[in-house]
Every structure is written in structure tokens, then in C-alpha cells.
């Protein structure tokens, strides 16, 4: 299959996705940003409208950086010239009909018709003069006269007169009249860009978001996605629609426990987390110590210890209820139970339920300082997902103050700094983490990523090569760290070293065969590298087979189906991802993709407009 812009768009779609990891109230082993980080500067709606340029395949924070970089480069269809910033579409249009006497090749024609059209043009021209002078009421009268004089079969001329009158109504902020006249213009001339865009703006003012989206989608397709003004309006209305839909959906959603692999990967990103450590010998009965391979019985009648036992058995659905028993009884492990329950609330996407528990742990001065620091890390990450970076920073700084020897504080704060574009500070935090935990491979790999990103942003080729060498050293030193191979693969893809990147993803799969996101990344690599759609879809389908709760896989599959023109299947995939979303923000950007696909479907029905497909 030959390379194509739609293929690049599909790659850009997935590269823009901020959701390869397990950042639920803390960074996960699979990436550096949580699922709530989908509100970065570059909108995601245009992915579903078949535009974009190839980007690096990134995980977590790397995704967000990619999206910001693309916005700075005025992303769009290719890099040559970027987006048009003009075309304000404020002025009325001049003569749109054939010149007088040009109705037939010999200059003849119905003189009465030509006189009527000529008089209509004269009225319109007079209206244009009033418009330019700011006399909009008089302009409206002239355009109304032009409409009444124009022969009904002169569709193009008549549509122009309606559109001009709509422009005058727009200046008077009479939005209902603007929409009505633009509708008349579009009925007469269905691909009339000015009328469609003006009606989109009127619908925005009238709070008709769905109708606004459909009109601006049609405009974007007709303009080849080259006018920034149109794209910014689409971005704006899709964000609003996404937030509205997500707010209602998230409020009524059923909590859903993620896959065991996701949960284990999440906890693996913490090294100083008491609640994720295996049960201590004193917590088990003597009989249980001799039962290797059998379920453990806890010595004390403790809900928290029972919950810990369920964690070891990967029986995660029972953990919240057992922690609640410990808390209700005000047992000796109440602080631990509060933190564990809060963590699982975060994992099932119930941030509102998690926050009171985290607040209580943080306020318990007599509690183990590592418990309080861990609660601050998780609350800080939750704040970041909710777009509250100042509160997030405060929590991380407080955690560092009360427990300066806690490596998790610096590891997770480093990820926060990456998202805030404070790369030097991120590197310093990773260094502090590594100093405390020299064998913590995940922090070593993420430090390499931060250095690579810094070099790439600065366009410093020597530093890029040094960072790539750093990746080699990390995977040599920590050959069992899947994250090291994954991040290295992303950098290699960015450098277009596709074959080696593919080898790194294979290493990841060898180490973590049940990590669905790796299959998604490898599938996307096949699209960018070989334009092998079948292989790419096969790998992403494999990801869903491994983990049917992998929202990243459903989202990516939906994006590719949009590019293939399979809107119905794309919408189904987006809806599955929405049902699995772990935060309201994540849900909002998924709704944006789904709404964009819906809008494209409606535009195809109404106007026969479709972007290129794979």
C-alpha cells in the first residue's frame, strides 16, 4: 500500500493520544501520563476528520509533548505552509452572476430576465456600499430588494444575496436571522463555504453545538483543512460538546475495575508504597506460612489485612469492601485502609470518592509518613488530571517536605514536570529518585526520555545522539525493564529507525506478553513504517483480545476506522473506549472524537462530502 496522508493521519491520531500508561492517581509502569491528561493544547477532533502529520509514537507525557509540538508547527495536512490564518469572511460578496448579455454564446437571452437580474445586482452593489460604510440596516434593505428581484432559477446569484444579507445581520448580532439566511443560501448552493461558516458561527452563538459542528465540519472538508479559523471553531465546539457529554456520562457511569495487568503495572511505579508491598510474615498464620501456593489466611480479624490478601490473589473486586470494614471499625490499620481504598477508587475512575480518603490520610499526623506522602502523590496526580497544576505542585512539594527520602515523590513529580514543560526540573527529580533508588529501572528509563525530549525540542543533534546512547545503556543495565525498551522504541520511531523500533517492541512483548498497549504501539508502527494496514489492525485486535478493557486500543481502532471511512464501526469503538474511560477529562476527549465522527457521517449524508480514506 502506498504511503498516503490518511495513513499519516491515523498515525498522528494515535501519537496524539495521551493514554498509553496507567497514570491513575500516580504514574504507571506503562507510561508517564494518566488518562485524564487528554486536555493538552492541541485538539483531538481533527484526527477524526482525516487530517494530521506523522508524529512520534509516544507514551504518556511524550504524547502530550508531541501534540504541543505539532500545534507549534501549525500542524495540519503536511508541513508546507501550515494553516491559512486569513479568510475572516466578514465582507459581502461582489458580482457572482454572469455578466450582462452572457446568458448565451451570442449574447442574446430573455431581456426581461436579464433586466431583473441586472437590477438585482445593482441593488446588491448598493447594499455592499452601505455595508462597507457600516450602515447595516440600509444594506439589509438593499439585499432584500435584490432577493425579491432575482429570478428564482438563478441559484448562485440568489444564494449570494442571502449570504450578503446574513453578513449584515451578523454585524447587528441578529443570530437567528443570520442562520435563516445562510440556510437559504446553502439550500441554493450546498457547497457555499462562506454561508456554511457564517451559519456555523450563528449556531455557536445560539448554542446549537451539534448544528455548528456539522457546518464547520463541512467547511473544513471543503477547504482541505487549510483554514485555521474554521479548524479553531471546530476545536472549540468539540471541546464544549465533549465536556457536556462527559459531565453527564461520568456522573452516572458504573465504576469498572481495570484489568489485572493494568493494576499491577500501576503499583509497579511505586517503590516506597506500604500498601502495595507483600504481606509481612507477622501478618500470616503459622499454618499459612507452610502452605506454599495456597491461599493465605490472615491471623487477625482485620478488613485491611483481608484486602491485602485479596491483592496477592488478584481478587481486586473485594478490596474496597474489606477496606471499608476496617475503616468502619476504626481498626489499627485504618490509615492504610483509607489509602488502599482511595487507590482503588482512583483505579475504577471514582476520583470524587477517593479525595475524602486521601484528605483524611494526609491530615493524620500520627500516621506513617510514607502513607501520607503516598496520599499526597496520588492526590497531586489527580489534581493534574483535573487541570489543577498549581494544586498538584503544592501536593508534590509537601510530600517532598514531609518525606525527603521517599523516591516515589521525585519519580512522580518528575513526570508532572514533563507535562508542565519543565524538563530540566524533571531531570533533576529523576536524578534525586535514582540517587535514593539506584536500581529503580523505570526512573532511569524516564530520565533518558526527558533528556531525549529536551534535545529533540532544542533540535540539538549531538544531544539527541547522546540521549539515544543513554537508552542503550539503560536497556543493557536493566534488560528486564519493559519501559526502557518502550521509551527507546518511541524515540527510534521519531528518528525513523523503524526496524530497530520494531525490535524494541518485540522485547517489550517478550517481557510483558499481557501488556495490551505494546501491541497497539507495534500496530501503529506498522502503519507508519510499512503502511501495512492489515498487520496494524491485526496487532491492535490482539491487544483487545489480551485486554478487553484497554480503552487505548478501542480508541486507536476507532481512529483508524474513521480513516478507512467506516464511521459506524469507528463510533462503536469510541463508545467502547468512553465506557472504559477512567476520568471525566479522558471521557471528554473521547466524546470529541466520537462527535467528530458523527458530524462527518451527517455531512456525508447531506452534502456528499468525505475526506480521503485509507
Task: Give a description of the structure.
The protein has 614 residues and is mainly alpha-helical. 65% of the residues lie in helices and 0% in strands. The protein is built from 28 helices and no strands. Helix 13 (319-328) packs antiparallel against helix 14 (334-347).
Can you lay out the helices and strands and say which pair or pack?
Elements: H1 5-16, H2 61-72, H3 111-132, H4 136-149, H5 155-171, H6 175-188, H7 193-205, H8 209-222, H9 228-252, H10 260-267, H11 286-289, H12 303-312, H13 319-328, H14 334-347, H15 351-363, H16 369-385, H17 389-402, H18 407-419, H19 423-436, H20 441-457, H21 461-477, H22 482-494, H23 498-511, H24 516-530, H25 533-546, H26 551-564, H27 567-580, H28 584-607
Strand fraction:
under 5%
> How much is the radius of gyration in Å?
29 Å
What would you call the structural class?
A: mainly alpha
Q: Which range best describes the helical content: under 10%, 10-25%, 25-40%, 40-55%, 55-70% or over 70%?
A: 55-70%
CA-based shape: elongated
Low-confidence parts, pLDDT < 50 over ≥5 residues?
A: 1-82, 95-112, 285-298
Any key phrases for this structure?
614 residues, mitochondrion targeting sequence binding, acetylation, elongated, TPR repeat, TPR-like_helical_dom_sf, 65% helix, mainly alpha
Describe the structure concisely for a colleague:
Keywords: Acetylation, Isopeptide bond, Membrane, Methylation, Mitochondrion, Mitochondrion outer membrane, Phosphoprotein, Repeat, TPR repeat, Transmembrane, Transmembrane helix, Ubl conjugation. With 614 residues, the protein is mainly α.
